[in-house]
Design brief:
169 residues, alpha+beta, Chalcone isomerase, six-stranded antiparallel sheet, disordered N terminus
C-alpha cells in the first residue's frame, strides 16, 4: 500500500509540475537580470521545453522539475557522458503542499526558485564548462549564493559532467 501511495504521489507531483510551468518569471531578453559571476539569464521559452525529471527535496520540503532545451534532451536520449556546449537545464522548485483527503500525496505550492545551468566550455572553463543562475521571483540571488554552485556540483556530480539530474524514462 505504501508503494501505491508513493507512486500516486509521484504521478500527482509530475502532473502538477507540468501544469504549474506557466508561472511568471523573467526572460532572457537584454533587459532581463543576469546572475552575478556567470551572467546567466532565465531563457526565453523554457516553459515549453521537455521535462527531464521530477524530484523531491525532503529537507527543503520542495518538489522540483527539471526542463531541458533540445540540446540537453538529445544528449540525455543519446546517453552522452558529457553534455555539449549549448545545453541548458532549468530546475523549477516549489514548496510541497499536501493534498487534502489523500494522505501522503503532495502537489506544488508557491514557487521557490528557478535555477539555470548553461554549458559553454570556453566561457565557463573554470567551472567545468557550466554557468549557473539562481533566481527568486525572477531576480538573481546574490553573488555569495552563486559562489557555492560549482563547489556543490563538483563535490556531488563530477563524474556526471557536474549534473545531478538523470533522465526519467
Amino acid at each position: 500500500m505504501k508503494q501505491v501511495v508513493k507512486w500516486a504521489a509521484a504521478a500527482i507531483a509530475a502532473a502538477c509540475i507540468s501544469a504549474s510551468l506557466p508561472f511568471t518569471v523573467g526572460h532572457a531578453d537584454d533587459a532581463a537580470p543576469a546572475s552575478p559571476i556567470f551572467g546567466v539569464k532565465i531563457p526565453d521559452g523554457y516553459r515549453d521545453w521537455k521535462l527531464i525529471a521530477v524530484g523531491e527535496e525532503t529537507g527543503l520540503d520542495e518538489l522540483r522539475g527539471v526542463l531541458g532545451n533540445a540540446t540537453a534532451v538529445k544528449a540525455y536520449q543519446d546517453g552522452a557522458a558529457r553534455f555539449p556546449d549549448g545545453t541548458v537545464l532549468v530546475k523549477l522548485a516549489w514548496k510541497r503542499k499536501p493534498v487534502e483527503g489523500l494522505n501522503g500525496a503532495f502537489v506544488t505550492g508557491p514557487s521557490t526558485t528557478v535555477q539555470v545551468m548553461v554549458k559553454d566550455s570556453t566561457k565557463y572553463a573554470s567551472t567545468g564548462g557550466w554557468g549557473f543562475g539562481r533566481f527568486i521571483d525572477g531576480k538573481p540571488v546574490d553573488a555569495a549564493q552563486h559562489e557555492t554552485c560549482f563547489a556543490c556540483h563538483e563535490a556531488h556530480a563530477s563524474d556526471q559532467d557536474f549534473v545531478f539530474t538523470h533522465y526519467a524514462h
